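Operator note (shift B, R.M.): manual run for U-box domain-containing protein requested after the automated queue skipped it. Running by hand, logging everything below so the morning shift can see what happened. Input copied straight from the record, untouched. If output looks odd, do not overwrite the archive copy; leave it for review.
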Amino acid sequence: MDEIEVPTLFLCPISLQLMSDPVTVCTGITYDRENIERWLFSSCKKNKTCPVTRQSLPHTDLTPNHTLQRLIQAWCTNNNNAWFGIETIISSPKPTIDQTQIVKLLMEAKKFPEKQLKCLRRLQSIAFESESNKIYLESAGAIDFLASSVMSEAAIELLFHLNPSESHLKNLVNSEGIQFIESLFHVLKHGKCQSRAYATVLLKSSFEVAGPTQLSNVTSEMFVEMFRVLRDQISQEASKAALKLLVELCSWSRNRIKAVEGGGVLALIELLLDVSERNM
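Run finished. Output pasted below as returned.
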C-alpha cells in the first residue's frame, strides 16, 4: 500500500502531526490546540512568543481555524482507507469560552450561596478543558473568590488545579494571609482525604511566599496536622509537600520546639521505619 503524504498545511508546526483542533495565534500561524497551549501555558515560565516566527505575542488568544478544520476533515474522509490511523475521529473545534460567561458564573456563585456548588462545577469543567481557560479564570478573578471559599471541597479542588502563580499567592497571603491560611488549616484538620491533600500543597506554596512574621508565628497545631498527613500517607504529592513545608518552617528555631511538641520525632521515626520496611 502506497503511503499517503499529508499536506504540510495540515501538520502542526510543533509536533509535525496532523492537527485535530487547529487554532491560530495573533501572528497568523496555526497550531494544534493541545500543542500550542502546552507551549504557552504549561511551563513554569510561560512562553509569550510564537514558536515559528519567534515574535512576542501581545496576547495569547487562540482563534479556531474553522476553514482549515473542514479541509482536514474532508481530506481524512477521502483518504480513510488509504492512510494508516486516519480512521481516528477528528474532533470538532472546542467552543471558545466567553470571558463574560466566567464572570457571570463567579458573580452568581458569590450572590447565591445555594447555586455556588453548581457554578463551581461548571467553572471546574471549563478549567479542565484547556490550559488557556485556566488563564482566563485567573484573570477573571476566580482565584480570589476561591480563596475566600476555600473550605468548600469544590472550591479547594479548583484552586489546587488552577495552580496560582507565585505573585498571585503572594498577594493572597499578604492581603488576606491570616484568614486564607487559617481556612486552609481548617480543611487540613477537618476535611476529607483529598481536600486535605489539596490543602497541604496549597499551604506549602503559600508559606514559600509568606513573610517572616507568618513563618515564625505558626501554631503547634499546624505541626500536628502536618505530621498527621505524613502518618496517613494521603498521597505521595501531599507527603512531599508536607515534608518541604516542615523543612521551611523548621528553619526558625522557635518552630523546631513546636515541631517536637507536635509529635515530630515520633512521626518521622515511624516514616523512616516504614520506608525501611518497604525497601527490605
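Quick read of the result: The longest strand covers residues 22-24. Residues 166-190 form the longest helix (25 residues).
Leaving this for review. - R.M.
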